[in-house]
Amino acid sequence: MKTLICIFIAYFGLSSAETIPELAEKLNGLKFIRLLDDVGLTDMLSGTGPFTVFVPTDNAFDALADGVLNKIMKDKELLKSVLLFHILSWKIYTKELKNEKRIPTLNNNMKVRINLYNKKIVIDGSKVLLADQNATNGVIHVIDKVLVPLPSQNMLQYLASDGEFYKFVHSFVKVKLERKLIDGPFTLFAPTDTAFDQFPPYLLIKLVSDDKKLTDALNYHLVKGTLFFDEWNGTTNSRRQIFKYHNESR
């Protein structure tokens, strides 16, 4: 019997007689709950549900860049949209999550991306620290970063709007490689204009004048799949993934 109980807990998570806000406070999510209070979302998450909530730890809020949290808190609509980006309108357990799956949140159905790295579960770049914590009206997954809605542009549009990647974007467009991005998701290693300036001029001229060589060089900056730096950097599996993709791209 004890074995069966242990298996049940490991598979379905711990059960609680508390609502999501009550349980979140005990899971190091006090700052998240206080922000919910500020925009009137606590009552909703105390209701029937069911909900899934990705709760950032207090440390996750402390780790935000200087001034970011204050800026968000001064704009109640922005704060509300950020918080809603952590909430799903149904209950989902980690055993149901698939790599590269995108699931809609209560922030106008904007989607978070799920990635699986070995046994790690990552939600839009935020690692799940504690999963499948059952409340009376849903489930909590504790995460190590605050989720922020992604820009609506594609990768090249985003880089073009930044102003530091003109030469890289121009090269992509020159050989019509932007069409390849439609078949994503991809991870793009984007050199800045400064990086291009450090390239020997005669080699750069030779490269950009040969579309095939330029395409090969740009493909080497492109990897199939979503690879968040904190989770894949330096691991054997990530190196294999990059090596495999570039061999297939030739």
From TrEMBL:
GO BP, one annotated term: extracellular matrix organization
GO function terms (MF aspect): cell adhesion molecule binding
The keyword Signal belongs to this UniProt entry's keyword annotation: yes
Record has Signal as a keyword: yes
One Pfam match: Fasciclin
Residue span, FAS1 domain: 16-147, 152-250
InterPro entries linked to this entry: Adhesion/Biosynth-related, FAS1_dom_sf, FAS1_domain
Signal peptide start-end: 1-17
Keyword annotations of the record: Signal
Origin: domain of life: Eukaryota
Single GO cellular component term: extracellular space
UniProt cross-references to PANTHER family, sorted A to Z: FI05614P, PERIOSTIN-RELATED
Name by which UniProt lists this protein: TGFBI
Organism (species): Mytilus edulis (Blue mussel)
